[in-house]
Amino acid sequence: MMVRMPLSAAEIERGERLGTMLRQARGARTMLDVALDAGVSPETLRKIESGRVATPAFPTIAAIAHALGLSLDTVWREISLPEPTRVPAPLNT
After folding, report:
1. Domains of the chain (ranges plus CATH)?
2. Residue 21: which pLDDT band, with cuts at 50, 70 and 90?
3. What is the pTM (predicted TM-score) of this model?
């Protein structure tokens, strides 16, 4: 049986920043629209945006970032800061 270690306070905080950033980047788009574009379930996106999934899988974040027009560099930079600085601008694709 595999036991998952509890998340650290820093991991929980980073997950909350990720959720806030994705929610802000989604803007007026519906959660369903973004989830379908990313190939994830709306429930997964909702849990990530709400911070309930603080450490989502890399492919999931990559797919959501792509659907929102965000680079992974931008996502990492934003969630690694002590305080979110701004809503990242989508990439021109």
Report:
1. 9-80 (1.10.260.40)
2. very high
3. 0.80
